[in-house]
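Are you able to produce any protein sequence you like plus the matching backbone structure tokens because I've never seen that pairing?
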Amino acid sequence: QVQLVESGGGLVQAGGSLRLSCAASGKIFNINDMGWYRQAPGKQRELVAVYSGSSMKYADSVKGRFTISRDNAKNTVHLQMSSLKPEDTAVYYCNADVDVGWGTKNNYWGQGTQVTVSS
């Protein structure tokens, strides 16, 4: 079994910064795509940023403000969030496509971490 554990959420004022971290553990042969999604109250879960191979993809709403980074040796992914806005308030979820061996690939979610940006 694979677990994703997020950390780093919290309350911050508009214009501030937060750094989210996600660590994957368990039976991991290889991690393919790894990234972050978010879900605000009453809204669907949406992609924030994802690291796919050596390329990164960002939602238009966070481009220039958020930066995703990844440490393959440690099976971790981070999201540096700057110039935060109240509309960034959401539960942020880590997501990973994991090769668990024997040709089996599964998709996993973390438990989520709350980010609240006050105006």
Notes: The mean pLDDT is 96. The first strand starts at residue 2 and ends at 7. Residues 89 and 116 are 5 Å apart (CA to CA).
